[in-house]
Amino acid sequence: MSLAPTLLPVRQQVRGSRLVWICASLLAFIAIASVAGPFLVDNDYRSTDFDNIFLPPTITGQHFFGTDDLGRDLFVRTLLGVRITLFVAVIASFVSLFIGVIYGAIAGYLGGKVDALMMRLVDAMYALPFIFFVILLMVVFERSLLLIFIAIGAINWLDMARIVRGQTLSLKQRSFVDAAKLIGVSSFGIVWRHITPNLLGLVIVYMTLTIPQAILVESFLSFLGLGVQEPQTSLGALVYGGTNHVQSATWLIVIPATVLAVILVCFNFLGDGLRELADPKSKT
Amino acid sequence: MRILGAIPTLLLVIAVAFLMVRAAPGGPFDSERALPPDVEQNIEKAYHLDEPLPAQFVRYLAGIAVGDFGPSFRYRDYTVSEIIRQAFPLSMRLGAMAMLLALIVGVSAGMAAALHKNSMLDRLISAVAMLGISVPIFVVAPLMVLVFAVSLDWLPASYAGSAGADRLIMPIIALALPQIAYIARLTRASMIEIMASDFVRTARAQGLRTASIIRYHAIKPAMLPLLSYMGPAIAAVLTGSIVVEQVFGIPGVGQFFISGALNRDYTLVLGITVFYAVIVIVLNLVVDLLYGFLDPRIRSR
Hints:
The structure holds two protein chains of two kinds.
Chain A (H helix, E strand, L loop, with lengths): L9 H31 L33 H37 L1 H15 L3 H11 L4 H27 L3 H8 L4 H37 L11 H9 L7 H28 L6
Chain B lengths: L1 H21 L14 H10 L6 H13 L14 H36 L4 H15 L2 H15 L17 H27 L2 H8 L4 H39 L4 H10 L3 H29 L1 H4 L2
Protein backbone atom coordinates (compact mmCIF):
# COMPACT_ATOMS: atom_id res chain seq x y z
CA MET A 1 0.00 0.00 0.00
CA SER A 2 1.58 3.19 -1.06
CA LEU A 3 0.05 6.26 0.43
CA ALA A 4 2.14 9.39 0.60
CA PRO A 5 2.71 10.33 4.24
CA THR A 6 0.67 13.49 3.85
CA LEU A 7 -2.37 11.45 2.85
CA LEU A 8 -2.22 9.31 5.96
CA PRO A 9 -4.46 10.40 8.79
CA VAL A 10 -2.37 12.75 10.88
CA ARG A 11 -3.09 10.82 14.04
CA GLN A 12 -1.64 7.67 12.57
CA GLN A 13 1.51 9.45 11.52
CA VAL A 14 2.00 10.92 14.96
CA ARG A 15 1.43 7.55 16.54
CA GLY A 16 3.96 5.99 14.21
CA SER A 17 6.58 8.52 15.06
CA ARG A 18 5.80 8.25 18.75
CA LEU A 19 6.70 4.57 18.54
CA VAL A 20 9.91 5.57 16.77
CA TRP A 21 10.70 7.98 19.61
CA ILE A 22 10.01 5.41 22.30
CA CYS A 23 12.24 2.86 20.59
CA ALA A 24 15.03 5.36 19.96
CA SER A 25 14.98 6.51 23.60
CA LEU A 26 14.95 2.96 24.91
CA LEU A 27 17.89 2.03 22.72
CA ALA A 28 19.79 5.15 23.76
CA PHE A 29 19.10 4.31 27.40
CA ILE A 30 20.34 0.73 26.99
CA ALA A 31 23.45 1.89 25.13
CA ILE A 32 24.31 4.54 27.74
CA ALA A 33 23.63 2.13 30.59
CA SER A 34 25.93 -0.44 29.03
CA VAL A 35 28.77 2.07 28.97
CA ALA A 36 28.11 3.90 32.24
CA GLY A 37 26.71 1.01 34.29
CA PRO A 38 29.98 -0.78 35.07
CA PHE A 39 31.33 2.38 36.78
CA LEU A 40 28.38 2.45 39.18
CA VAL A 41 28.87 -1.02 40.67
CA ASP A 42 31.97 -2.56 42.25
CA ASN A 43 31.74 -5.93 40.50
CA ASP A 44 33.69 -6.70 37.36
CA TYR A 45 32.82 -9.09 34.59
CA ARG A 46 35.33 -11.82 35.20
CA SER A 47 35.93 -12.18 38.94
CA THR A 48 34.68 -15.55 40.01
CA ASP A 49 33.31 -16.08 43.51
CA PHE A 50 32.64 -19.70 44.30
CA ASP A 51 30.97 -18.94 47.65
CA ASN A 52 28.24 -17.03 45.86
CA ILE A 53 27.24 -19.06 42.81
CA PHE A 54 23.66 -19.01 41.46
CA LEU A 55 22.53 -16.08 43.61
CA PRO A 56 19.07 -15.01 42.44
CA PRO A 57 18.47 -11.39 41.40
CA THR A 58 17.94 -8.89 44.23
CA ILE A 59 17.25 -5.19 44.43
CA THR A 60 18.97 -4.65 47.75
CA GLY A 61 21.95 -6.99 47.47
CA GLN A 62 25.23 -6.61 45.70
CA HIS A 63 24.21 -8.47 42.51
CA PHE A 64 21.13 -6.90 40.86
CA PHE A 65 20.78 -9.64 38.26
CA GLY A 66 22.20 -12.42 40.47
CA THR A 67 25.28 -14.48 39.70
CA ASP A 68 26.09 -17.30 37.29
CA ASP A 69 27.58 -20.78 37.74
CA LEU A 70 31.01 -19.29 38.49
CA GLY A 71 29.68 -16.62 40.83
CA ARG A 72 30.23 -13.83 38.31
CA ASP A 73 27.93 -10.83 38.48
CA LEU A 74 25.27 -11.13 35.79
CA PHE A 75 24.45 -7.40 35.83
CA VAL A 76 27.95 -6.42 34.77
CA ARG A 77 28.15 -9.30 32.33
CA THR A 78 24.87 -8.36 30.70
CA LEU A 79 26.07 -4.78 30.28
CA LEU A 80 29.32 -6.06 28.78
CA GLY A 81 27.28 -8.32 26.49
CA VAL A 82 25.18 -5.37 25.32
CA ARG A 83 28.30 -3.33 24.69
CA ILE A 84 30.00 -6.03 22.63
CA THR A 85 26.83 -6.95 20.77
CA LEU A 86 26.13 -3.33 19.80
CA PHE A 87 29.76 -2.65 18.94
CA VAL A 88 30.00 -5.69 16.67
CA ALA A 89 26.68 -4.88 15.05
CA VAL A 90 27.51 -1.25 14.29
CA ILE A 91 30.96 -1.99 12.88
CA ALA A 92 29.65 -4.92 10.86
CA SER A 93 26.86 -2.74 9.50
CA PHE A 94 29.42 -0.22 8.33
CA VAL A 95 31.23 -3.02 6.51
CA SER A 96 28.03 -4.09 4.78
CA LEU A 97 27.13 -0.48 4.05
CA PHE A 98 30.50 0.07 2.41
CA ILE A 99 30.23 -3.02 0.19
CA GLY A 100 26.54 -2.51 -0.54
CA VAL A 101 26.81 1.14 -1.51
CA ILE A 102 29.75 0.60 -3.83
CA TYR A 103 28.24 -2.49 -5.46
CA GLY A 104 24.76 -1.01 -5.79
CA ALA A 105 25.96 2.35 -7.06
CA ILE A 106 28.17 0.76 -9.71
CA ALA A 107 25.42 -1.61 -10.87
CA GLY A 108 22.84 1.15 -10.96
CA TYR A 109 25.08 3.67 -12.68
CA LEU A 110 26.45 1.36 -15.36
CA GLY A 111 23.04 -0.20 -16.03
CA GLY A 112 22.32 -2.52 -18.93
CA LYS A 113 23.96 -5.93 -19.11
CA VAL A 114 26.47 -5.30 -16.31
CA ASP A 115 23.64 -4.28 -14.01
CA ALA A 116 21.56 -7.31 -14.97
CA LEU A 117 24.46 -9.65 -14.30
CA MET A 118 25.41 -8.00 -11.01
CA MET A 119 21.85 -8.08 -9.73
CA ARG A 120 21.38 -11.67 -10.85
CA LEU A 121 24.39 -12.53 -8.69
CA VAL A 122 22.76 -10.77 -5.73
CA ASP A 123 19.55 -12.73 -6.33
CA ALA A 124 21.48 -15.98 -6.40
CA MET A 125 23.30 -15.10 -3.18
CA TYR A 126 20.08 -14.15 -1.43
CA ALA A 127 18.94 -17.73 -1.30
CA LEU A 128 22.21 -19.27 -0.13
CA PRO A 129 22.43 -20.60 3.42
CA PHE A 130 25.13 -18.08 4.29
CA ILE A 131 25.55 -19.02 7.91
CA PHE A 132 26.99 -22.34 6.84
CA PHE A 133 29.72 -20.58 4.90
CA VAL A 134 30.38 -18.23 7.78
CA ILE A 135 30.76 -21.15 10.14
CA LEU A 136 33.05 -22.86 7.66
CA LEU A 137 35.13 -19.68 7.67
CA MET A 138 35.15 -19.69 11.48
CA VAL A 139 36.36 -23.28 11.53
CA VAL A 140 39.10 -22.74 9.02
CA PHE A 141 40.56 -19.53 10.40
CA GLU A 142 41.21 -18.45 13.96
CA ARG A 143 38.09 -17.02 15.54
CA SER A 144 38.41 -13.30 16.00
CA LEU A 145 36.20 -10.25 16.16
CA LEU A 146 37.64 -9.10 12.85
CA LEU A 147 36.46 -12.27 11.17
CA ILE A 148 33.00 -11.79 12.65
CA PHE A 149 32.83 -8.26 11.21
CA ILE A 150 33.85 -9.46 7.78
CA ALA A 151 31.49 -12.42 7.89
CA ILE A 152 28.46 -10.38 8.92
CA GLY A 153 29.32 -7.60 6.52
CA ALA A 154 29.61 -10.12 3.72
CA ILE A 155 26.11 -11.39 4.43
CA ASN A 156 24.29 -8.14 5.03
CA TRP A 157 25.36 -6.06 2.07
CA LEU A 158 22.78 -7.62 -0.27
CA ASP A 159 19.78 -5.56 0.87
CA MET A 160 21.83 -2.41 0.84
CA ALA A 161 23.07 -3.10 -2.68
CA ARG A 162 19.51 -3.53 -3.95
CA ILE A 163 18.25 -0.34 -2.39
CA VAL A 164 21.23 1.72 -3.48
CA ARG A 165 20.95 0.39 -7.02
CA GLY A 166 17.29 1.37 -7.26
CA GLN A 167 18.03 4.84 -5.96
CA THR A 168 21.02 5.26 -8.27
CA LEU A 169 18.90 4.33 -11.27
CA SER A 170 16.64 7.27 -10.60
CA LEU A 171 19.42 9.63 -9.53
CA LYS A 172 21.42 9.21 -12.70
CA GLN A 173 18.55 10.60 -14.77
CA ARG A 174 18.77 13.89 -12.92
CA SER A 175 20.25 16.85 -14.71
CA PHE A 176 23.17 17.41 -12.34
CA VAL A 177 24.57 14.08 -13.50
CA ASP A 178 24.24 15.21 -17.12
CA ALA A 179 25.97 18.45 -16.20
CA ALA A 180 28.84 16.57 -14.57
CA LYS A 181 29.16 14.34 -17.60
CA LEU A 182 29.20 17.37 -19.85
CA ILE A 183 32.14 18.95 -18.08
CA GLY A 184 34.01 15.67 -18.39
CA VAL A 185 33.83 14.06 -14.96
CA SER A 186 34.73 10.38 -15.16
CA SER A 187 32.18 7.64 -14.36
CA PHE A 188 33.95 6.91 -11.11
CA GLY A 189 33.98 10.59 -10.23
CA ILE A 190 30.25 10.89 -10.88
CA VAL A 191 29.43 7.86 -8.74
CA TRP A 192 31.75 8.93 -5.94
CA ARG A 193 31.22 12.70 -5.86
CA HIS A 194 27.68 13.11 -7.11
CA ILE A 195 25.65 9.93 -6.67
CA THR A 196 26.89 8.55 -3.34
CA PRO A 197 26.38 11.73 -1.28
CA ASN A 198 22.76 11.83 -2.45
CA LEU A 199 22.23 8.28 -1.27
CA LEU A 200 23.26 8.99 2.31
CA GLY A 201 19.85 9.77 3.81
CA LEU A 202 18.24 6.57 2.60
CA VAL A 203 21.31 4.53 3.43
CA ILE A 204 21.30 5.69 7.04
CA VAL A 205 17.64 4.80 7.38
CA TYR A 206 18.31 1.32 6.06
CA MET A 207 21.27 0.95 8.34
CA THR A 208 18.88 0.93 11.30
CA LEU A 209 17.50 -2.21 9.69
CA THR A 210 20.83 -3.88 9.00
CA ILE A 211 21.99 -3.41 12.60
CA PRO A 212 19.41 -5.85 14.04
CA GLN A 213 20.33 -8.34 11.32
CA ALA A 214 23.97 -8.04 12.30
CA ILE A 215 23.02 -8.50 15.96
CA LEU A 216 21.15 -11.65 14.97
CA VAL A 217 24.12 -13.15 13.17
CA GLU A 218 26.60 -12.24 15.90
CA SER A 219 24.46 -13.63 18.69
CA PHE A 220 23.66 -16.70 16.61
CA LEU A 221 27.38 -17.43 16.26
CA SER A 222 28.05 -16.69 19.92
CA PHE A 223 25.13 -18.88 20.94
CA LEU A 224 26.74 -21.78 19.09
CA GLY A 225 30.08 -21.10 20.78
CA LEU A 226 31.65 -19.84 17.56
CA GLY A 227 31.53 -16.11 18.20
CA VAL A 228 32.82 -14.02 21.07
CA GLN A 229 34.96 -16.13 23.42
CA GLU A 230 35.14 -16.26 27.25
CA PRO A 231 35.76 -14.34 29.45
CA GLN A 232 34.41 -11.74 27.03
CA THR A 233 30.77 -12.20 26.34
CA SER A 234 27.89 -11.09 24.17
CA LEU A 235 24.14 -11.40 24.59
CA GLY A 236 24.08 -14.55 22.44
CA ALA A 237 26.80 -16.17 24.54
CA LEU A 238 24.92 -15.24 27.74
CA VAL A 239 21.69 -16.77 26.44
CA TYR A 240 23.61 -19.93 25.60
CA GLY A 241 25.12 -19.98 29.09
CA GLY A 242 21.59 -19.69 30.46
CA THR A 243 20.28 -22.68 28.51
CA ASN A 244 22.52 -24.95 30.59
CA HIS A 245 20.74 -23.92 33.78
CA VAL A 246 17.15 -23.55 32.60
CA GLN A 247 15.89 -25.85 35.33
CA SER A 248 17.70 -24.30 38.28
CA ALA A 249 18.59 -20.68 37.57
CA THR A 250 16.00 -19.22 35.22
CA TRP A 251 17.30 -15.65 35.53
CA LEU A 252 20.48 -16.61 33.71
CA ILE A 253 18.49 -17.06 30.53
CA VAL A 254 15.48 -14.80 31.07
CA ILE A 255 17.45 -11.59 31.68
CA PRO A 256 19.86 -11.68 28.72
CA ALA A 257 17.14 -13.08 26.44
CA THR A 258 14.80 -10.23 27.37
CA VAL A 259 17.47 -7.59 26.84
CA LEU A 260 18.34 -9.07 23.45
CA ALA A 261 14.68 -9.26 22.44
CA VAL A 262 14.03 -5.65 23.51
CA ILE A 263 17.03 -4.40 21.54
CA LEU A 264 16.02 -6.32 18.42
CA VAL A 265 12.35 -5.32 18.56
CA CYS A 266 13.29 -1.66 19.12
CA PHE A 267 15.72 -1.60 16.21
CA ASN A 268 13.16 -3.18 13.93
CA PHE A 269 10.39 -0.76 14.92
CA LEU A 270 12.80 2.15 14.65
CA GLY A 271 13.99 1.05 11.22
CA ASP A 272 10.49 0.38 9.94
CA GLY A 273 9.22 3.70 11.25
CA LEU A 274 12.09 5.71 9.81
CA ARG A 275 11.78 3.94 6.50
CA GLU A 276 8.11 4.74 6.26
CA LEU A 277 8.79 8.39 6.97
CA ALA A 278 11.72 8.61 4.56
CA ASP A 279 10.44 6.42 1.79
CA PRO A 280 6.66 6.05 1.93
CA LYS A 281 6.52 3.97 -1.23
CA SER A 282 8.45 1.10 0.31
CA LYS A 283 6.56 -1.99 1.30
CA THR A 284 7.21 -4.23 4.24
CA MET B 1 17.93 -21.81 -19.60
CA ARG B 2 17.36 -21.63 -15.89
CA ILE B 3 18.74 -25.09 -15.35
CA LEU B 4 21.88 -24.07 -17.20
CA GLY B 5 22.05 -20.92 -15.09
CA ALA B 6 22.05 -22.91 -11.87
CA ILE B 7 25.10 -24.96 -12.77
CA PRO B 8 27.69 -22.14 -12.62
CA THR B 9 26.22 -21.00 -9.29
CA LEU B 10 26.56 -24.52 -7.98
CA LEU B 11 30.16 -24.86 -9.18
CA LEU B 12 31.09 -21.44 -7.84
CA VAL B 13 29.65 -22.20 -4.43
CA ILE B 14 31.45 -25.52 -4.18
CA ALA B 15 34.70 -23.94 -5.39
CA VAL B 16 34.49 -21.14 -2.81
CA ALA B 17 33.82 -23.58 0.02
CA PHE B 18 36.57 -25.91 -1.16
CA LEU B 19 39.16 -23.16 -1.50
CA MET B 20 38.25 -21.74 1.88
CA VAL B 21 39.15 -25.02 3.54
CA ARG B 22 42.32 -25.43 1.48
CA ALA B 23 43.41 -21.92 2.40
CA ALA B 24 43.35 -22.90 6.06
CA PRO B 25 46.58 -22.37 7.94
CA GLY B 26 47.84 -25.84 8.89
CA GLY B 27 46.69 -29.19 7.57
CA PRO B 28 44.17 -31.55 9.10
CA PHE B 29 46.93 -33.87 10.33
CA ASP B 30 49.03 -31.29 12.11
CA SER B 31 49.35 -32.32 15.71
CA GLU B 32 51.45 -31.54 18.75
CA ARG B 33 54.21 -33.97 17.89
CA ALA B 34 55.73 -33.95 14.44
CA LEU B 35 55.16 -37.03 12.30
CA PRO B 36 58.08 -38.77 10.61
CA PRO B 37 58.34 -37.39 7.07
CA ASP B 38 57.58 -40.70 5.35
CA VAL B 39 54.46 -41.24 7.46
CA GLU B 40 53.37 -37.74 6.56
CA GLN B 41 53.92 -38.45 2.89
CA ASN B 42 51.93 -41.65 3.11
CA ILE B 43 49.03 -39.89 4.76
CA GLU B 44 49.08 -37.12 2.18
CA LYS B 45 49.10 -39.71 -0.55
CA ALA B 46 46.23 -41.66 0.99
CA TYR B 47 44.07 -38.52 1.06
CA HIS B 48 45.42 -37.20 -2.27
CA LEU B 49 46.75 -34.08 -0.58
CA ASP B 50 49.96 -34.28 -2.62
CA GLU B 51 48.17 -33.59 -5.91
CA PRO B 52 47.92 -30.07 -7.38
CA LEU B 53 44.88 -28.06 -6.23
CA PRO B 54 42.85 -28.26 -9.48
CA ALA B 55 43.23 -32.05 -9.51
CA GLN B 56 42.05 -32.22 -5.89
CA PHE B 57 39.06 -30.06 -6.76
CA VAL B 58 38.08 -32.21 -9.72
CA ARG B 59 38.42 -35.30 -7.53
CA TYR B 60 36.20 -33.67 -4.91
CA LEU B 61 33.58 -32.72 -7.52
CA ALA B 62 33.60 -36.22 -8.96
CA GLY B 63 33.07 -37.56 -5.45
CA ILE B 64 30.12 -35.23 -4.82
CA ALA B 65 28.53 -36.26 -8.10
CA VAL B 66 28.23 -39.80 -6.80
CA GLY B 67 27.38 -38.69 -3.28
CA ASP B 68 30.82 -39.15 -1.75
CA PHE B 69 32.01 -36.29 0.45
CA GLY B 70 35.17 -38.04 1.62
CA PRO B 71 36.12 -39.30 5.07
CA SER B 72 35.40 -37.47 8.30
CA PHE B 73 38.60 -36.42 10.03
CA ARG B 74 37.19 -36.81 13.54
CA TYR B 75 34.61 -39.55 13.39
CA ARG B 76 37.29 -41.95 12.22
CA ASP B 77 35.02 -44.85 11.34
CA TYR B 78 32.54 -42.89 9.28
CA THR B 79 32.57 -41.07 5.98
CA VAL B 80 30.88 -37.69 5.74
CA SER B 81 28.26 -39.22 3.44
CA GLU B 82 27.39 -41.86 6.03
CA ILE B 83 26.93 -39.19 8.67
CA ILE B 84 24.72 -37.11 6.38
CA ARG B 85 22.70 -40.14 5.28
CA GLN B 86 22.11 -41.10 8.88
CA ALA B 87 21.22 -37.61 10.15
CA PHE B 88 19.45 -35.99 7.21
CA PRO B 89 16.07 -37.81 7.28
CA LEU B 90 15.40 -36.47 10.76
CA SER B 91 16.44 -32.92 9.82
CA MET B 92 14.37 -33.11 6.66
CA ARG B 93 11.27 -34.20 8.55
CA LEU B 94 11.76 -31.41 11.05
CA GLY B 95 12.28 -28.81 8.33
CA ALA B 96 9.40 -29.97 6.13
CA MET B 97 6.93 -30.06 9.02
CA ALA B 98 8.02 -26.59 10.15
CA MET B 99 7.64 -25.24 6.62
CA LEU B 100 4.18 -26.76 6.29
CA LEU B 101 3.08 -25.35 9.62
CA ALA B 102 4.51 -21.95 8.72
CA LEU B 103 2.62 -21.89 5.41
CA ILE B 104 -0.72 -22.92 6.93
CA VAL B 105 -0.62 -20.59 9.93
CA GLY B 106 1.21 -17.74 8.19
CA VAL B 107 -1.11 -17.57 5.19
CA SER B 108 -4.25 -17.83 7.35
CA ALA B 109 -3.06 -15.09 9.69
CA GLY B 110 -1.95 -12.87 6.82
CA MET B 111 -5.27 -13.26 5.01
CA ALA B 112 -7.25 -12.58 8.17
CA ALA B 113 -5.19 -9.44 8.81
CA ALA B 114 -5.54 -8.20 5.22
CA LEU B 115 -9.29 -8.73 5.05
CA HIS B 116 -9.85 -6.93 8.34
CA LYS B 117 -7.33 -4.20 7.66
CA ASN B 118 -6.71 -1.78 10.55
CA SER B 119 -8.96 -3.77 12.88
CA MET B 120 -7.85 -4.94 16.30
CA LEU B 121 -7.19 -8.37 14.81
CA ASP B 122 -4.93 -6.88 12.16
CA ARG B 123 -2.99 -4.87 14.74
CA LEU B 124 -2.60 -7.93 16.95
CA ILE B 125 -1.37 -10.11 14.09
CA SER B 126 1.04 -7.42 12.88
CA ALA B 127 2.45 -6.90 16.36
CA VAL B 128 2.92 -10.62 16.97
CA ALA B 129 4.53 -10.97 13.53
CA MET B 130 6.95 -8.15 14.36
CA LEU B 131 7.88 -10.00 17.53
CA GLY B 132 8.31 -13.25 15.61
CA ILE B 133 10.65 -11.59 13.12
CA SER B 134 12.67 -9.72 15.73
CA VAL B 135 13.18 -12.37 18.37
CA PRO B 136 15.58 -15.07 17.23
CA ILE B 137 14.96 -18.81 17.52
CA PHE B 138 17.74 -19.27 20.04
CA VAL B 139 15.89 -16.96 22.42
CA VAL B 140 12.44 -18.40 21.76
CA ALA B 141 13.38 -22.07 21.90
CA PRO B 142 15.00 -22.08 25.38
CA LEU B 143 12.15 -19.94 26.73
CA MET B 144 9.68 -22.46 25.30
CA VAL B 145 11.55 -25.21 27.12
CA LEU B 146 11.37 -23.14 30.29
CA VAL B 147 7.61 -22.63 30.02
CA PHE B 148 6.26 -25.81 28.44
CA ALA B 149 8.73 -28.37 29.71
CA VAL B 150 10.09 -27.08 33.02
CA SER B 151 7.17 -25.08 34.43
CA LEU B 152 4.10 -26.70 32.90
CA ASP B 153 5.60 -30.10 32.14
CA TRP B 154 3.42 -30.58 29.06
CA LEU B 155 6.11 -31.54 26.59
CA PRO B 156 9.51 -33.23 26.84
CA ALA B 157 12.43 -30.79 27.17
CA SER B 158 14.66 -32.75 24.82
CA TYR B 159 14.50 -35.23 21.99
CA ALA B 160 15.88 -37.97 24.20
CA GLY B 161 13.27 -37.23 26.87
CA SER B 162 10.49 -39.09 25.10
CA ALA B 163 9.97 -41.81 22.51
CA GLY B 164 6.66 -40.53 21.12
CA ALA B 165 5.82 -37.94 18.50
CA ASP B 166 5.48 -35.25 21.17
CA ARG B 167 9.26 -34.84 21.25
CA LEU B 168 9.12 -33.06 17.89
CA ILE B 169 6.24 -30.69 18.69
CA MET B 170 8.29 -27.94 20.33
CA PRO B 171 11.18 -28.12 17.83
CA ILE B 172 8.76 -27.83 14.91
CA ILE B 173 6.93 -24.87 16.41
CA ALA B 174 10.17 -23.11 17.36
CA LEU B 175 11.55 -23.57 13.87
CA ALA B 176 8.30 -22.43 12.24
CA LEU B 177 7.69 -19.27 14.31
CA PRO B 178 9.90 -16.78 12.43
CA GLN B 179 8.66 -18.14 9.11
CA ILE B 180 5.05 -17.82 10.26
CA ALA B 181 5.79 -14.18 11.00
CA TYR B 182 7.44 -13.48 7.64
CA ILE B 183 4.78 -15.32 5.67
CA ALA B 184 1.97 -13.57 7.53
CA ARG B 185 3.45 -10.14 6.79
CA LEU B 186 4.09 -11.01 3.18
CA THR B 187 0.60 -12.43 2.67
CA ARG B 188 -0.99 -9.42 4.33
CA ALA B 189 0.90 -6.91 2.17
CA SER B 190 0.30 -8.75 -1.06
CA MET B 191 -3.37 -9.48 -0.31
CA ILE B 192 -4.05 -5.83 0.50
CA GLU B 193 -2.43 -4.77 -2.75
CA ILE B 194 -4.41 -7.28 -4.79
CA MET B 195 -7.70 -6.40 -3.13
CA ALA B 196 -7.12 -2.75 -4.10
CA SER B 197 -6.29 -3.57 -7.72
CA ASP B 198 -8.41 -2.79 -10.74
CA PHE B 199 -9.48 -6.30 -11.61
CA VAL B 200 -10.82 -6.90 -8.12
CA ARG B 201 -12.73 -3.62 -8.33
CA THR B 202 -14.20 -4.76 -11.64
CA ALA B 203 -15.20 -8.07 -10.11
CA ARG B 204 -16.81 -6.20 -7.23
CA ALA B 205 -18.66 -3.95 -9.67
CA GLN B 206 -20.06 -7.03 -11.31
CA GLY B 207 -21.59 -7.92 -7.98
CA LEU B 208 -19.43 -10.86 -6.91
CA ARG B 209 -19.36 -11.68 -3.24
CA THR B 210 -16.08 -11.11 -1.42
CA ALA B 211 -15.65 -14.82 -0.84
CA SER B 212 -15.90 -15.57 -4.55
CA ILE B 213 -13.56 -12.71 -5.44
CA ILE B 214 -10.93 -14.08 -3.12
CA ARG B 215 -11.38 -17.61 -4.29
CA TYR B 216 -11.49 -17.07 -8.03
CA HIS B 217 -9.53 -13.85 -8.57
CA ALA B 218 -7.40 -12.74 -5.69
CA ILE B 219 -5.82 -15.78 -4.15
CA LYS B 220 -3.58 -16.86 -6.99
CA PRO B 221 -1.87 -13.53 -7.70
CA ALA B 222 -1.66 -12.83 -3.98
CA MET B 223 0.28 -16.04 -3.42
CA LEU B 224 2.95 -15.31 -6.03
CA PRO B 225 5.22 -13.16 -3.81
CA LEU B 226 5.05 -15.98 -1.30
CA LEU B 227 6.44 -18.38 -3.86
CA SER B 228 9.46 -16.20 -4.48
CA TYR B 229 10.01 -16.04 -0.73
CA MET B 230 10.30 -19.84 -0.60
CA GLY B 231 13.99 -19.79 -1.57
CA PRO B 232 15.14 -17.57 1.30
CA ALA B 233 12.67 -19.38 3.57
CA ILE B 234 14.29 -22.73 2.89
CA ALA B 235 17.72 -21.28 3.62
CA ALA B 236 16.38 -19.74 6.85
CA VAL B 237 14.81 -23.01 7.98
CA LEU B 238 18.07 -24.88 7.39
CA THR B 239 19.92 -22.23 9.40
CA GLY B 240 17.33 -22.32 12.15
CA SER B 241 17.49 -26.09 12.34
CA ILE B 242 21.08 -25.79 13.60
CA VAL B 243 19.83 -23.93 16.67
CA VAL B 244 16.74 -26.03 17.21
CA GLU B 245 18.70 -29.27 16.99
CA GLN B 246 21.22 -27.85 19.43
CA VAL B 247 18.63 -26.70 21.96
CA PHE B 248 16.53 -29.87 21.90
CA GLY B 249 19.39 -32.30 21.40
CA ILE B 250 18.10 -33.69 18.12
CA PRO B 251 20.73 -35.84 16.35
CA GLY B 252 20.24 -34.20 12.95
CA VAL B 253 22.61 -32.69 10.42
CA GLY B 254 22.79 -29.40 12.31
CA GLN B 255 24.13 -31.02 15.42
CA PHE B 256 26.85 -32.87 13.52
CA PHE B 257 27.64 -29.60 11.78
CA ILE B 258 28.21 -27.77 15.06
CA SER B 259 30.17 -30.55 16.70
CA GLY B 260 32.23 -30.71 13.51
CA ALA B 261 32.78 -26.96 13.67
CA LEU B 262 33.84 -27.03 17.33
CA ASN B 263 36.19 -29.98 16.68
CA ARG B 264 37.62 -28.41 13.52
CA ASP B 265 36.49 -31.37 11.43
CA TYR B 266 37.12 -29.69 8.06
CA THR B 267 35.72 -32.34 5.78
CA LEU B 268 32.52 -32.78 7.75
CA VAL B 269 31.82 -29.03 7.87
CA LEU B 270 32.74 -28.64 4.20
CA GLY B 271 30.61 -31.64 3.23
CA ILE B 272 27.51 -30.43 5.07
CA THR B 273 27.93 -26.88 3.74
CA VAL B 274 28.16 -28.13 0.17
CA PHE B 275 25.32 -30.59 0.69
CA TYR B 276 22.97 -27.89 2.00
CA ALA B 277 24.07 -25.40 -0.64
CA VAL B 278 23.24 -27.93 -3.34
CA ILE B 279 19.83 -28.63 -1.80
CA VAL B 280 19.03 -24.92 -1.56
CA ILE B 281 20.13 -24.19 -5.13
CA VAL B 282 18.13 -27.12 -6.50
CA LEU B 283 15.01 -26.16 -4.53
CA ASN B 284 15.40 -22.58 -5.73
CA LEU B 285 15.51 -23.83 -9.26
CA VAL B 286 12.28 -25.74 -8.65
CA VAL B 287 10.66 -22.61 -7.23
CA ASP B 288 11.87 -20.58 -10.23
CA LEU B 289 10.43 -23.08 -12.68
CA LEU B 290 7.18 -23.24 -10.72
CA TYR B 291 6.99 -19.45 -10.75
CA GLY B 292 7.33 -19.34 -14.49
CA PHE B 293 4.65 -21.98 -14.73
CA LEU B 294 2.19 -20.16 -12.47
CA ASP B 295 2.75 -16.57 -13.55
CA PRO B 296 1.55 -16.06 -17.14
CA ARG B 297 3.42 -12.74 -17.37
CA ILE B 298 6.73 -14.59 -17.02
CA ARG B 299 5.70 -17.58 -19.11
CA SER B 300 5.12 -15.50 -22.21
CA ARG B 301 8.59 -13.95 -22.01
